Each structure stands twice: as structure tokens, then as C-alpha cells.
Amino acid sequence: METILYQVADNIATITLNRPETLNAFSDQMIDETTSALKQAGRDEAVRCVMITGNGRAFSSGQDLADVTARAGSFSIGDHLRHGYNQLITTMIALEKPIIGAINGVAAGAGCGVALAADLRIASDRASFMLAFSKVGLIPDSGVNWLLPRLVGYARAYEMAITADKIPAARAYEWGMVNRVVPHDQVWETAVAWATSLAAGPTLAYGLTKRIMHKTWDMSLPEALAYEAYLQEVAGRSADNKEGVRAFLEKRAAHFTGK
Ligand code: LHQ
Fold first, then answer.
1. CB atoms within 10 A of CB 127
2. Which of 3, 50, 191, 237 could link 30 by a cystine bridge, Cβ 3.0 to 4.6 Å?
3. Residue 109 alpha carbon to ligand 1 centre in Å
4. 141 CB under 6 A from ligand 1?
């Protein structure tokens, strides 16, 4: 990996976007490497929580604009999305382990899409979110049209899209885009503390919860109830369910294995 750092320790995989000279703009290589790292984290049974952050003062400035400008002639944005960002965002949503975004600075354009595709966001008080797309005459992509209105409602999402205003962390919290805002120097330790606790949790149940919460967006109540019964049957047969119930009855802390 040349454009990201990937590390696994204590059941946590950490992905650090690592092109700080461009504020971690996404080159093709960085899109591919981030997608591969997420797939690897999905396959690795030792990984029970994933963290994603940016090196330097930004989370990500989105698409590397110098990179796409350099190959203007035959470049198809549609193909670029289909082969690149669409794979990345789909991989994040399909990954049945919690993903924590440690949002250390600005998250712009596709970088905002990646931040929103994390399951939980801890933002630095210096972070901001910016749908920079309209500044370059584009519509939001990277899943933003699916994710953002669900988090903040249509009016705020559309406002962000057409103004391309930088939404500071405090407002992002008020709007429901982030779970916590912490002083800049505490972002990493706060995210690690949360990840450590999640990595010791019932990983299978966390993963199935992510799956059902995304699937039920498009379901009627009877369909959602039926799907809950189906997946609860799966969770109910897990070792962690047995251990959780036993631990409760024995008045002790549960030791979950994620299975
Ligand atoms: C950058 C970038 C960048 C390259 C900062 N690229 N170098 C999908 C498919 C295909 C095509 C197009 O797009 C998409 C999806 C998208 O993501 S569209 C949106 C693309 N992103 C943007 O439009 C954001 C562009 N960046 C900015 O507006 C600013 O840099 C922000 C607001 C993020 C930060 O502003 P500042 O803190 O003032 O930093 P800066 O502008 O001075 O940037 C620092 C350096 O990073 C600078 O390089 P330099 O050599 O002068 O130090 C920038 O050129 C470079 N950089 N973003 N996306």
C-alpha cells in the first residue's frame, strides 16, 4: 500500500488516508487501496472493528482534481465512479463490522462521501464537511445522495449540495451527521477507546444490525418485522448470545468472541 497506511492491532484495523500534500485527495490508487484494505479487514477474522482517518490536517479533499484534469480527453466520470468510488462505498456499507470515522479535518467531495459511509463519526472540533461537487459543476456522488438526506433530511442535504458551504463540526453534530465532537487533540484517543470497546463486543450482532438497518430503508413494516425475525434467529444461535445471557444470569461481564 503506497497511498494509505493499514495496520491491525488489538482486533482493530486502522486505515489512514496518506496523501497529506493534497489533503488526502483520492487518486485511482488510493481508491483501490482503500477498497482492498476494507475487503481485507472484512475477511480477517481477527478484525472486529475498523477505523478510518486522514494523515495531516484533513480527512480527505475528495477526488484528486489535478489527476483527473491531466487525462481530460478520454476520461469518463461515469466509468470512474463505477469502477472506483462505487466499489469503495459499496464495500464500506457491505462490511459487516463497525467502521468508525475519526474525522480529523475537512471532508470534502468524495471525501465527505467516505466519511458518511462510516457507521459512526467522531469529529475533531476543527473538522468540517463540504459537498464541494457543485463548485466544480458536478452533482454529489460517492453515495452522498443516498446517505446524507437520511442523516440530516432533504432540505439540509440539498442546501449543502448547492451552496458547497463548509459545515463546521458543531453544526454537523447538531444536524446529526456526527456522533461526537471532541477537541482536536482528543480525536484519536476517543476513536480508539470506542473502537476498543466495539472490538470486544458481539461482532456478529453488530454486523447483522448494520445489514438490517440498511436493508429496512426500502422495506414496509411487515417486511422489516419478518427480516428481524429471520436475522434474530441467526443472532440467537450465536455463541455471543449464549455467553451474553449466561453472563447476565451469573452477574458478571460477558466475554464476547464475536461469533
Ligand atoms: C488538492 C485537492 C484536490 C488535488 C486540495 N485535488 N489537490 C468524482 C469523479 C470525478 C471527477 C471529479 O470529482 C469527483 C468527486 C469529487 O470529489 S468532486 C470534489 C473534489 N474536491 C474539491 O473540489 C475540493 C478541492 N479542495 C478545496 O476546496 C480545498 O482544498 C479545501 C476546502 C478542501 C481545503 O482548503 P484549504 O485548507 O485552504 O487548503 P488548500 O486549498 O490550500 O489545499 C492544500 C493543498 O492541497 C493545495 O496544494 P498546494 O500544492 O498549493 O499546497 C491544494 O491544491 C491541494 N488540494 N484539494 N481535491
1. 30
2. 3
3. 9
4. yes
Pocket test for ligand 1, best of 3, 17, 21, 23 (most atoms within 8 A of CB): 23
Nearest CA to ligand 1 atom 30: 61
CA distance 107 to 91: 19
Residues of the chain with pLDDT under 50: none
Residues contacting 135, CB < 8 A, separation 6+? 164
Cα distances (angstroms) measured from residue 207 to each of 9, 50, 75, 246: 20, 12, 37, 22
Q: Which atom of ligand 1 is nearest to the CA of 66?
A: 4
pLDDT in tens, 38-79: 999 999 999 999 999 999 999 999 999 999 888 877 789 999
106 CA closest ligand 1 atom index = 33
Give the tens place of pLDDT for each residue, 141-174.
Answer: 999 999 999 999 999 999 999 999 999 999 999 9
What pLDDT shows up at residue 210?
Answer: 98
**pLDDT value for 57:** 98
Note the pTM of the prediction, 2 decimals. Answer: 0.97
According to CATH, the superfamily of the domain at 4-199 is 2-enoyl-CoA Hydratase; Chain A, domain 1 (3.90.226.10)
Question: From the CB of 193, is ligand 1 less than 6 Å away?
Answer: no
Domain ranges of the chain: 4-199, 203-249
* Integer angstrom CA distances of residue 228 from 92, 94, 202, 215, 238: 22, 18, 17, 11, 15
Amino acid present at 144? V
State if residue 164 touches ligand 1 by the CB under 6 angstroms criterion: no
